[in-house]
Amino acid sequence: MAGYLVSDNRKVTTHRFIEMKQKGEKISMLTSYDYTTAGIVDRAGIDGILVGDSASNVMAGNSTTLPMTVDQMIYHARSVVRAVKRALVVCDMPFGSYQTGVHDGVVNAIRIMKESGCDALKMEGGVEILDTVKAILDAGIPVMAHLGLTPQSINKFGTYAVRAKEEKEAAKLLSDAKALSEAGCFAVTLEKVPAALAEQVTREISVPTIGIGAGGKCDGQILVVADMLGMNQGFSPRFLRRYADLNTVMTDAIGQYVTDVKSGDFPNESESY
Ligand code: KIV
């Protein structure tokens, strides 16, 4: 099956994201962490690829995103950038690379941009990190904000449950989104928040909201690629739609290969020199 037919083959920019919101065109995003997957995702017509620090869970098997380092994010982002021709490539700033202050944040942001070749960075947090976000924007680096469930703060939250259900947290999220968009962030990721709150944020800020578990009224959607392809069977949050069952496809194919090797069927004459 062919991918989504893109009407515009030009490289997607952060400005295009904002234009898409203005035109009411939904923005599609997925994560990728490696060259092969990113090439498939890009050719299928995705608008944006996030090199997420969820690589920590998906690629390395950690239980949180906290262990990711700047060097590891650069390795993954560089692999993705080599494959991508059209999509906007956004790289996560990992835990510890900007929480220690403005100077560290700018130094690490510049390093990730220089060494990975990605187009933009994503950072978790609200007004607490506003000065650092502003300094990174001042350095000419586009920033996507990330509010709601911010996995780098999982030890503070203590749970991956839906955020901002209470009025006080919802009001803070709305004012954080306004402050970050007014500061110049080109988009705001909203993770695991009530759909009504995400709709209000989407209405009240001028830059696109990209939702994951934030309902259908966001300007765009993002999922973790391994989850939506059904590679990972143990993770079934309500917001996840599985578009394939690659776990079964891969297990069956590998099982068949094992059988063929054991029986001597592989390789046959036409597969030999
Ligand atoms: O790291 C990641 O994959 C993310 C998405 C869940 C938004 O931040």
Q: What does the model show?
A:
Mg(2+) binds at residues 53, 92, 124. Belongs to the PanB family. One of its GO terms (biological process) is methylation. With 273 residues, this protein is of the alpha/beta class. It has 2 domains: 14-242, Alpha-Beta Barrel (TIM Barrel), CATH 3.20.20; 246-273. The protein has 11 helices and 8 strands. Helix 4 packs parallel to helix 5. It is globular, with a radius of gyration of 20 Å. The structure holds 3-methyl-2-oxobutanoic acid. The site of 3-methyl-2-oxobutanoic acid has 11 residues, from strand 6.
Keywords:
single chain, 273 residues, alpha/beta, TIM Barrel, 2 domains, 8-stranded parallel barrel, 11 helices, globular, binds 3-methyl-2-oxobutanoic acid
Give a quick rundown of the structure.
By secondary structure, the protein is an alpha/beta fold. The protein is built from 11 helices and 8 strands. It has 2 domains: 229 residues, Alpha-Beta Barrel (TIM Barrel); 28 residues.
Write the layout of secondary structure elements.
Layout: H1 14-23, E1 27-31, H2 35-43, E2 48-51, H3 55-58, H4 70-83, E3 88-92, H5 102-116, E4 120-124, H6 130-138, E5 143-148, H7 154-157, H8 167-183, E6 187-191, H9 195-204, E7 209-212, E8 220-223, H10 225-228, H11 246-263
Parallel strand pairs: 1-2, 1-8, 2-3, 3-4, 4-5, 5-6, 6-7, 7-8
Helix pairs in contact: 2-4, 4-5, 5-6, 8-9
